[in-house]
Amino acid sequence: MPGYLLIESRDPFEGKGFSQRLELAAALIAQDAPVTFFLVENGVLAARRAARVHELEKLARSGVAVLADEFALRERGIPAAELAGHIRSATLDLLVERLGAGAVALWN
Amino acid sequence: MRVLQIIETAYRATLEEQDDTVLWFTRAIRGAGAAADVVLTGTAVSYTVRDQDAHGLSIGTWSQRHPPAIEHELTKLIESGASVSAIAEDLEERGIAAESMIAGVARLSRKELSGLLGRYDRVWKW
Amino acid sequence: MTPTRSLTFLLMDAPYEQSRTGTAFRLMDAALRLGFAVRVFAYEGAVSLPVTQQKPHPNAMHGRSVEEEAHPVPHVWVSSLMQRATERGTPLDWVNCGLCVDERGATEVVAGVRRGSPADFWKMVTETDNALIIPTR
Hints:
The complex is a heterotrimer of chains A (108), B (126) and C (137). Chain B is α/β, with parallel strands linked by helices. Chain B has five helices and seven strands; from the N terminus they run βααβββαβαβαβ. The radius of gyration of chain B is 15 Å and the shape is globular. With 137 residues, chain C is of the alpha/beta class. Chain C has a single domain, classed as DsrEFH-like (Hypothetical Protein Ychn, Chain: A, 3-Layer(aba) Sandwich), CATH 3.40.1260. At the B-C interface, helix 1, helix 2 and strand 3 of B face helix 1 and helix 3 of C.
């Protein structure tokens, strides 16, 4: 089953949209569908261990793969040592492969 | 004339422009005589982080020669005499520690921002 | 013979306006590198991406001449993807939405870009493995 690919490009602190999309991811994983939450652009600002985005860890523990674009991380000066433990750095190749596998992709 | 630039948007087309166009604009109007200072708020507080690296962009047969160097742009602004501040609450919620920031950026609480506006002839939000 | 994997991308943003453009081109580049055939439907502002009148400029703030600054021009990105696609033998099909072209006067575009309509987008969707819409704000 190709599952879902939620691509998050916006700063999580910009508005309440981010938490709404986390809720969507949580609802989808509860339906036993594979879900990838892929942070790109300013979305990677959620990836710092010290950032106040506790809901992402909860999402990861529920089985959602939380990935962050390695280029966007580097572009924003977020090194591997500062990355939250539940978030994996990944290249866009992985995003493309998920698309190619037929994942339902929503870009925010 | 004293100008306060409140900058919230960040990394918007910075790869294509090879800089941040609002920081660039601020330096340009300072060059033209504006006494412009900057407050970074929201996403833009991320501009204060050291060691940002946007090298390596390549598309098809094209490779970028000069990636944006945002912290360098900010440092040049500071060195030119501009006051550059970042909203403390926005830094904290993004987990940006003081030791990871470039030198010369002042921390400003959101409450202090309102008091700052009255000291400028023009205040513009970006 | 294994059929070529294929993807459709729908873009909406004009050049130099949003970080989405850079990410979109990185995704399309990655897709070509991974062996996907790529089809692009440029909608609204994105029809200006392949416009050939875009010109690089010097940057006095950076202390660089036109040549030194090497300012990116998205029509070069489009051509460069097309060139890479040709080298790899995996086609890149770029369609500009015709009405959007008319509204914006985006008529002078790189070779290989063709004019179309949402019906072309739909055809792309039915003929490729998946489609990603990168919406504007």
